Amino acid sequence: EIVMTQSPATLSVSPGERASLSCRASQSISTNLAWYQQKPGQAPRLLIYGASTRATGVPARFRGSGSGTEFSLTISSLQSEDVAVYFCQQYYSWTFGQGTKVEI
Amino acid sequence: QLQLQESGPGLVKPSETLSLTCSVSGGSINSYNNYWGWIRQPPGKRLEWIGNIDYSGRTDYNPSLRSRVTISADTSKNHVSLTLTSVTAADTAVYHCARLEREHPYFYYYMDVWGRGTTVSVSS
């Protein structure tokens, strides 16, 4: 099984500042990686697929990068509405990271 | 706009069978480029993929659950169903359904639309 490990577990960022989230795969997954945002009581929202392609309607402040085993999600200027849990997922065999909670 | 809505009993007794339905609106489940999947999240744990079904009815299951899981699709009702047999407390979770979209030109599928999920507790 491909294990996905995210860091940090919690990230505190001031409004307007940059947030950087990491995701590591236990083996190479090329660019078969997606990032999701989840707010309490809501459905997870797709942000990024193919490691770096923004989904429809996702603001440009969200940027994904990486390939192989190391990936990152950057929120360039954190907005209050970005407070959420973010998790990564590899879609070779569909396993998920444990999530990073972003707070202000 | 595609929407997915999970439904089913919120409480199931140990050793019984869990049955959930994912109702799809704003699109058809009979789509060549899509799979339909189930994912769950036990309290305090990470998300776990349960399985998928494609337009032809072909299924793919998590090996850890394969012996107990069945996913089926009813195109006349435009919904996808999940059945999990012999449940235990470890099956207590929020259960989500999702549409999987093919990443062109490849044959890898990511989850692009999710339902909010339904909470299932296993307890006597």
Short description:
The complex is a heterodimer of chains A (104) and B (124). By secondary structure, chain A is mainly β.
Detailed description of the structure:
The complex is a heterodimer of chains A (104) and B (124). With 104 residues, chain A is mainly beta. Helix content of chain A is 0%, strand content 50%. Chain A is built from no helices and eleven strands. In chain A, the strands form two sheets. In chain A, strands 2, 4, 5, 6, 9, 10 and 11 form a seven-stranded mixed β-sheet that branches. Chain A has a four-stranded antiparallel β-sheet with strand order 1-3-8-7, with no helix packed on it. In chain A, strand 5 and strand 6 (53-54) form a beta hairpin. Chain B is mainly beta and 124 residues long. Helices cover 0% and strands 55% of the residues of chain B. In chain B, the strands form two sheets. In chain B, strands 2, 4, 5, 6, 9, 10 and 11 form a seven-stranded mixed β-sheet that branches. Chain B is globular and about 45 Å long. The mean pLDDT of chain B is 95.
**Distance N terminus to C terminus of chain B?**
39 Å
Task: Identify the quaternary structure here.
Answer: heterodimer
Considering DSSP H and I runs of 4 or more, what fraction of the residues of chain B is helical?
under 10%
Specify Rg of chain A, calculated over alpha carbons: 13 Å
Give the helix/strand class of chain A: mainly beta
Number of helices of chain B: 0
**Rough shape of chain A?**
globular
- Total of helices of chain A: 0
* Spans of at least 5 consecutive residues with low confidence of chain A: none
Biggest protein-protein interface? Answer: A-B, 23 and 21 residues
Number of strands of chain A: 11
What integer value in Å does the Rg of chain B equal? 14 Å
Structural class of chain B: mainly beta
Helicity level of chain A: under 10%
Task: Tally the beta strands of chain B.
Answer: 11
- Which sequence of SSEs, written as H and E, runs from N to C of chain A? EEEEEEEEEEE
The major β-sheet of chain A equals: 7 strands, mixed
Q: Kindly state the mean pLDDT of chain A as a whole number? A: 96
Largest sheet of chain B: 7 strands, mixed
**Pattern of helices and strands of chain B:** EEEEEEEEEEE
Distance between the ends of chain A: 34 Å
